[in-house]
Design brief:
The structure holds 2 protein chains of 2 kinds. Chain A contains no helices and 11 strands. Chain A has strands at 4-7, 10-13, 18-25, 31-37, 44-50, 53-57, 64-70, 73-79, 87-94, 105-106, 110-114. In chain A, the strands form 2 sheets. In chain A, strands 2, 4, 5, 6, 9, 10 and 11 form a 7-stranded mixed β-sheet that branches. The chains are: A mainly beta, B mainly beta.
C-alpha cells in the first residue's frame, strides 16, 4: 500500500462543475507535488509545494487551483474543466523540494473523466 | 532538447526468464536515476535508484546498470514473474533534486505464461 493517499479514486464531472482532489501523506515530507498522466504517457509535473508554499507552477491553466492547507495535505481544485483534462492525477511527496538522491513517493491517483 | 527515452515501448518475456529494460538519457548533468513500476490503475512505485558515482546497484531480483559513457541505463529483472507485468519508467534528475525529476516514455512489460 502506498503511503500517499489520494481521494477520490475515480471522479466524473461535467464541464461546469467544481470539484476537488485530495492528497494526504504522513511521512513528514515537506514537499508535495501534483502530476498529470495521460494514458500510455509518463507523468507530467503540474505543481510543487515546498513547506506549504507554491514553489513551481508548470504553466498550468487557472482552471486547476492547488492548495496546501498544511504539511500533510494537498488539494487540487477543479473548475470549468475541458474533456481533454481527463487523465490520472497523481500526488507525490518527498522529504523536501530539493531532496537529493531521494525518490518521489506517489499515490495511486485519481482517475478524472470530464464529460 | 534534453530528454530521457526508452529504446523499446513494449517487451514480452516468458515467465521465469530474465528481463532487460533499457533507457537512454541525454542530459549529461543528470546524476541521479530512478526506476518506477506502474501497474494498471496504480501510481508509479519506486523500484530502485542509482547515483552517478555508481555503475551497478542490486535489489531484490532487480539490478540497475548505469553506463555514463553512452548515457544508458538499464533495469534487469531476474526470473520474471506475472506480477512484474507493468509499465516501467526510468526517471533522471540533474543535480539529484526531487523537483527536477524527468520521466522517460515508459516500457510496457508483459510476462507470458
Amino acid at each position: 500500500d502506498t503511503e500517499v493517499t489520494q481521494t477520490p479514486k475515480h471522479l466524473v464531472m461535467g464541464m461546469t462543475n467544481k470539484k476537488s482532489l485530495k492528497c494526504e501523506q504522513h511521512m513528514g515530507h515537506r514537499a508535495m507535488y501534483w502530476y498529470k498522466q495521460k494514458a500510455k504517457k509518463p507523468p507530467e509535473l503540474m505543481f510543487v509545494y515546498s513547506y506549504e508554499k507554491l514553489s513551481i507552477n508548470e504553466s498550468v491553466p487557472s482552471r486547476f487551483s492547488p492548495e496546501c492547507p498544511n504539511s500533510s495535505l494537498l488539494n487540487l481544485h477543479l473548475h470549468a474543466l475541458q474533456p481533454e483534462d481527463s487523465a490520472l492525477y497523481l500526488c507525490a511527496s518527498s522529504p523536501d523540494r530539493d531532496s537529493y538522491n531521494s525518490p518521489l513517493h506517489f499515490g495511486n491517483g485519481t482517475r478524472l473523466t470530464v464529460t | 532538447g534534453e530528454s530521457v527515452g526508452l529504446h523499446l515501448p513494449t517487451l514480452s518475456v516468458q515467465e521465469g526468464d530474465n528481463s532487460i529494460i533499457n533507457c537512454a538519457y541525454s542530459n549529461s548533468a543528470s546524476d541521479y536515476f530512478i526506476w518506477y513500476k506502474q501497474e494498471s490503475g496504480k501510481g508509479p512505485q519506486f523500484i530502485i535508484d542509482i547515483r552517478s558515482n555508481m555503475d551497478k546497484r542490486q535489489g531484490q531480483r532487480v539490478t540497475v546498470l548505469l553506463n555514463k559513457t553512452v548515457k544508458h541505463l538499464s533495469l534487469q529483472i531476474a526470473a520474471t514473474q506475472p506480477g512484474d507485468s507493468a509499465v516501467y519508467f526510468c526517471a533522471e534528475s540533474p543535480g539529484g533534486s526531487a523537483r527536477q525529476l524527468t520521466f522517460g516514455s515508459g516500457t510496457q512489460l508483459t510476462v507470458l505464461p
